[in-house]
């Protein structure tokens, strides 16, 4: 077993635990490279199908390429796709800085979708290496009744034993690729030939390393126009993955405040 | 950094040539974990460009001395001053290893976080302040590393600058911690004197520690080995789920140890049923050929339809795990309320869960203390050895034989409250399989069924006391006998008077009562008889166990007469006694009867005559292949 085999086996184990132990789960499909890998892993876990809905909480501000990707692969992969809208910006905490406030719409949209469908588990494609607060996450991460995350009171995870009993009315976040890195994602995408949105590849000296809303995501300087070239670039770069995500850099604690409130 | 990247063979950071090793850095609060991490990132060239200069500038601007630990102060809640960094890429490289630092320590020290991180680690660095020496949290973390199975532990004695780099001080601490860890069965891979703040011993053996001959921290990390999958051990495939998405019935799980291949004969524990692996299923390509080893998440199909459920363990028949209802474990306890004798718990061994009772507690101590005072209960952050009795049998190994299937966690109110190692398994209820040589019957099954005109079966009547189980059982017995069959009545109360006279009415004893009934009934069924069991059998789990034992021969009939009617009947006067408080553990007036969810037949004796109900049972036995159709004709000839 090589490194990618090990990562894959662990993720499949997590998917099967989530499906066995929770009653009603959904996979959050953000259309990005990470959540596409997640869908692929879930199909491996369940022998070709996704036995629960794929939920796209849509800000309405994604790139056109992303919507095309969603509509095409939603059909091709035979997903039970649920597209849920986000509330307007006015409905969001006005004390947050602009980009974080914009991103917080997604938190609100997520809460509305949770209330609408009554999911007790949401599968999310976050990774420990992406961002400091995510490094503190559990694989099965309990959320409060308001969807909030209490980083100080997280139950322990002994080996691969996860806490899978959310309190009545609350939900769990399940993170099957928490232990993957950005380079793992690309190496696996290449090995398994998983489709990607072309925005990740360099055009005119720029590419996106991370895809969010159009107005708060910027491309990075890059000449990497194939996955192999991306992997080489990642070997050498010291620029963080989310450097192009405005909301991470507005104030010292904006991202953490978002996450405590239930952001991904 | 030694990585050479050539366009011809794009290297992935975790490619085949560079092993990835996951580590945790643990130790007492303020002994310098964060400082060491900051220093390691710097020494291995892992910091983003300009980061160090920026942090130093920010520190200077705020009029405070620069601290390496600032690098890790990413969460505002763990931060003394407002300094943030873009990211916490806690990954770095040594000469030949990619090191992943799991859950980088923050200022707030939580054992919960330490456990979560160390559970996934291949190795650990235990840090000790040279001035303060070994402290309670040092010992506690050392204990947890042992308990969690982390074998590669490097000790660093930090802040050597504060003891003038004195070799004697280093040796005293080194001796103390080495002795402590060795008493737990952990041998340190290195003990290293360092000053994380100044850099001595981290990547370089400086003059100040010129007397030290061992490896630096970076060198010690470079020698760590990634944990290897346990392919050499016996096969253990704990079942996570059974999927029937299409016409395949796929048993899914992760191989914890050993390996398997299509065609292998396997045994499903704890039921002990034998089958053969028909195929190993996968996606997008299926089936997959070749041997599948430990660490793989797989799906297999079997050559016969057996009752398999989540939590069963698939093994090779000659090397199966032990089946038990009683075991001894060494556990670490995290719950506020101490664990005491008699406590009811939920125990998880892999995907298997079972209710359990603490039968005895021994060696309950605080692993942080030197001279341990033994307690009766296991307090928060303490350890102890417990004997637990399980409400249903599980398949398990002692951790010395299999570290993966020899561990368990304990849940309280749906939250993990402790975990530990299986020390020993009390297999007293089942002799070692090698000692048993079952004697086959002289008669073939088809000889019996030709005579009786039926196949063997276990007809299980469950329902409240006085619901009419025994009446129906007797009527059915008479009917089958009249038709030339071979029915045998196993009445719960009757069997309790003899075979089960040693059992009371606790949950554990009730389970055992049902298990024995099911075993006897199954033996009869395998010999072609129809065993009719009439037993209240209130626990769904116990009946599921009975179904597991009898397997395809099992036919469950819920005698669903209402509680009001039963209490009105009360032929044995039990309801009256129970109402008067004179009959403890009586099923009927409480809510402790768990109705079957998928019985083969449901009968309410308040609305049906005995003959009518017996007809219905007979019909059910026909449609489910127990009774042969000609039986009616045969009866007409008698």
Radius of gyration of chain A: 17 Å
Termini of chain B, distance in Å?
A: 93 Å
Helix content estimate of chain B:
25-40%
Mean pLDDT of chain B: 85
List low-pLDDT spans of chain A.
none
Percent of residues in beta strands of chain B: 25-35%
Structural commentary:
- The complex is a heterodimer of chains A (264) and B (638).
- Chain A is an alpha/beta fold and 264 residues long.
- Chain A has seven helices and eight strands.
- Chain A starts with a helix and ends with a helix.
- In chain A, the strands form two sheets. In chain A, strands 3-2-1-4-6-5 form a six-stranded mixed β-sheet, with helices on both faces.
- Chain B is of the alpha/beta class and 638 residues long.
- Chain B is 25% helix and 26% strand.
- Chain B contains 15 helices and 25 strands.
- In chain B, helix 10 (507-526) packs parallel to helix 11 (540-550).
- Classes of the chains: A alpha/beta (264), B alpha/beta (638).
Chart the SSEs and their pairings.
The complex is a heterodimer of chains A (264) and B (638).
Chain A: H1 3-21, E1 25-28, H2 33-45, E2 54-58, H3 64-76, E3 81-85, H4 98-117, E4 121-123, E5 140-142, E6 172-174, H5 182-192, E7 206-207, E8 220-221, H6 227-236, H7 254-260
Parallel strand pairs in A: 1-2, 1-4, 2-3, 4-6
Antiparallel strand pairs in A: 5-6, 7-8
Chain B: E1 20-27, H1 33-43, H2 51-61, E2 91-93, E3 98-101, H3 111-119, E4 123-129, H4 136-148, E5 152-158, H5 167-183, E6 188-193, H6 217-222, E7 237-243, E8 250-254, E9 259-260, E10 265-269, E11 273-281, E12 292-293, E13 297-302, E14 313-316, E15 322-333, E16 344-349, E17 352-365, E18 382-396, E19 407-412, E20 415-425, H7 445-452, E21 457-463, H8 469-482, E22 487-491, H9 492-497, H10 507-526, E23 530-534, H11 540-550, E24 554-559, H12 563-569, H13 574-579, E25 601-603, H14 610-623, H15 631-637
Parallel strand pairs in B: 1-3, 1-4, 4-5, 5-6, 21-23, 21-24, 22-23, 24-25
Antiparallel strand pairs in B: 2-3, 7-8, 7-14, 8-13, 9-12, 10-11, 10-14, 11-13, 15-18, 15-20, 16-17, 16-19, 17-18, 19-20
